[in-house]
Amino acid sequence: MITLRVFESHSFDPRINLAIEEWLLDHTSKDEIWLYLWQNEHTIVLGKNQNAWFECNLKAFEEDGGSLVRRLSGGGCVYHDLGNLNFTFFACENHYDTARQTSVLKRALRSFGIEAEVSGRNDVLVDGCKVSGNAYCQRGPKHYHHGTLLVDCDFSKMAAYLTPHRKKLEAKGVSSVASRVMNLKEAAPDLTIPALKKALAKAFEEEYSGEALHKKGDVREVFPIPVDELSPLIKKYASEEWTLHSPEPFTWLSDVVRLSEDPCFGLFQLGISARDGRIVKAVLYTDSLDETCSLRTEQVLLSLPFDRDTIKQALNEAGLAPLTNLLASFS
Questions:
Q1: Contact 185, 129 (CB under 8 A)
Q2: Going by C-beta distance under 8 Å and a sequence separation of 6 or more, which residues neighbour residue 199?
Q3: 203-235 residue pLDDT tens
């Protein structure tokens, strides 16, 4: 029998919440499925492989006292405030099922009279507008599936701080980031964050009916996480080295290109630094949901001759053929 656990963070600090999330991923039990509910206050969360300077108005956000953090999963940049509820499902591969996990979200929303549908790879829509974006991470047999639920988010701040590339907006058929999102309160005016938390816990139990459910409160009461294990993770998420990935003095930087062939979906930009004719560093910026894509590319290109044909051949042989489209401006 699977044991189900539902818990939440009582912190609104994104560095703490992401540190807890990573700790939970590393400690996911093969016989349990966990649902973690959490909120961040006035925060921009970058996808693992995104370029912070391209995705948001950093100067304005910092001046307004915002927190910029980078998560473990791939995908795009999002804005969090206390009108937004975040969820994370944890499971080992024998129980990990994104369809069932998404069903929990749909069940919970249906209890408020809201009919939601899944669109594309990672969006949940209501009346054609996005109310939830999802992303994924895997470490060996351990997985998480997390995302947002827009309840009463301040879209004026979202529009002011997020600056997605025009190609991303064109692909969605919209003119701005705020024009394709919707708060759930528009569909159910009486909906609140506490009510949604209860609905998610109930839907979680219904989806996995027959399994043992242990409802708990604060995640740090359920799991007394050792300080010496959590503190380094908090420090990582607070560091500029992890969050900003400072721009390199690239020898060559590609144009931003939208790709839609396996295994590359999303926006991509490749930067290469070379010394004495060889590649000393390669950085692949992307909002792809495959969080491993950048690391694989960077490992493949490291130490190769700084030569277009060599780079193209290496990408082809590594199963990353769509990325050769980034080499159009290489000279």
A1: no
A2: 108, 109, 111, 112
A3: 999 999 877 778 778 898 888 899 999 999 999
Beta bridge partners of 258: 267
DSSP class of residue 181? B
CB-based burial label for 103 (10 Å; 0-12, 13-18, 19+) = middle
Provide the 3-class DSSP secondary structure of residue 301.
helix
Other beta carbons within 10 angstroms of residue 33's beta carbon come to: 26
Q: Judge if the upstream peptide bond of residue 226 is cis by omega within 30 degrees of 0.
A: no
What sign results for the dihedral spanned by CA atoms 61, 62, 67, 73? positive
Strands (E), 167-275: 212-218, 252-253, 257-261, 264-275
pLDDT at 248: 67
Res 169: pLDDT: 37
Q: Which of 279, 270, 260 is nearest to 322 (CA)?
A: 260
Would you give the end-to-end CA distance of the chain in angstroms? 59
pLDDT tens-digit map of 243-273: 987 666 899 999 999 999 888 899 999 999 9
DSSP summary character for residue 56 = B
